[in-house]
Design brief:
Blueprint (H helix, E strand, L loop, with lengths): L1 H10 L21 H15 L2 H20 L4 H19 L11 H4 L3 H4 L1 H9 L2 H27 L19 H11 L8 E3 L14 E3 L15 E3 L27 H21 L2 E7 L2 E8 L2
Length: 298
Amino acid sequence: MPFVLYFVARGSVAADAVETSRGFALGLPQEPLAQLVHDFAQRLAASFTLPGGVLYLAAVALLVWMMLCFTGRTTVLACMIASGVALVLLFVADRNSQAWLGYFRFLLPGLPFLVAGLLAFGYRERRVFAAAAGAAALVLQASSAWVAMARAAGPVTAMNFIEHYDAAIFFPMKSLLSDARAKGYLAAGTAVLASTPDTSLRAIPGIPVAFGSPGAQACACSAERPAVMPLYIRYANLAAPFAEPGTGSSRLPSDREPLWRAAAALRPACLAELRKTCAHVLERVEGGEVVSALGTAR
């Protein structure tokens, strides 16, 4: 049922609402297995701490063990293992998904089946042992949960590239707009022109921010453009090793990374022009670099 729901939802996306096909395309990975395993492990390591991985491996081992010991449920548990493995292999065999192995949504359908050993243990053993196993699971999962909450509570760009080498990318636009309105620098309803350092940027309903063509800069206030917002990509998490100019990876999108680099190269001149032409300038510094700014003529 999780797969059926996912497949129907994925197929219901309008063709003009996505940039690439979302249909299932059967095919084995074209890359070496070692490379896929490396990418998979790296993506998990960027999102989960070591104790969380220990918990998952322990749950899978417990599922196998309970299948051998809990003879009254062997068939059920074997079906659980088969279901979990099948859901994992489904995305491995989908050519439209192989580039994103390790992505959360691809893991979630199989996880409930592969951790069923914990539930079987609770039925099999005494309550005190089941309670101890539950407490141990909470302790092992706590560090990963803490990392997730810390990222969510911290600077928005701390969540950049947490799932892919090319996404997700966050900008502190809402906080800049709120700050500018609170200080009286930006009147309600004033349109803001933002730079476009990535082709995936789209206007968001309810937020008065418009984007130009890919690569366009927004560095100067004028009568026609009373509010401008330059944006910059901060390399973090999976992309962090490639933050320095001159570094790169085949995993980074070759059609988009040049835009990121070009915007970063123009950042000093752009910010200088912003301070020169705008009456007020607010900046956001995250990870030791300016990731966004808002200049207003008011």
